[in-house]
Amino acid sequence: MLRMPGFFMPDMKEVMRSPLSMTAADQRLWRVPAACSLAWALFMLWGCLNETGASGGLILRLFPFLNGMAYADKLVHASLHGVLATLLWWAAVLRARSLGRAWTLAQAACVVGLCAVYGGLIEGLQSFLTVTRGAEWLDALANTLGAGLAVLFWQRLGSRWLYSSKI
Fold this sequence. Notes:
Keywords: Membrane, Transmembrane, Transmembrane helix. The chain crosses the membrane at residues 74-93, 105-125, 137-154. By secondary structure, the protein is mainly α. The chain has one domain (2-161). 65% of the residues lie in helices and 4% in strands. The protein has 7 helices and 2 strands. The model is unreliable at 1-10 (pLDDT under 50).
């Protein structure tokens, strides 16, 4: 395993192996980021449906330095969906690799689309299930932008590390 400060990336020879030469554990590796993305999505749902009250919401209680910052809400939305998109992207890339399929730009767009739909669903649920929160188009836009930037980042980084035979 290649070790870099703050990153643990698999060796390229292991990543580029055919699915026939992969062990069963390698073929199931995609399930780890998939489970993490499900857990993160549930955390996001819980946090976004949490009543804000006088304290300003869960995120502002956890990160008080965001209080008073212009567009802090949009930054939080973009960040939450960026993390979700990152987890989904890694799960999808590892799944494609385990099946011996090439990773395509259309699959990356599906990750962004899934995050955008989930963000829209959360916005809709906020307007129906909470008293102190409501749906905002700018929040949905921030969700999609955060997911898109995360996928773009990993696509660029991944094109160098995941798909190159040189390291």
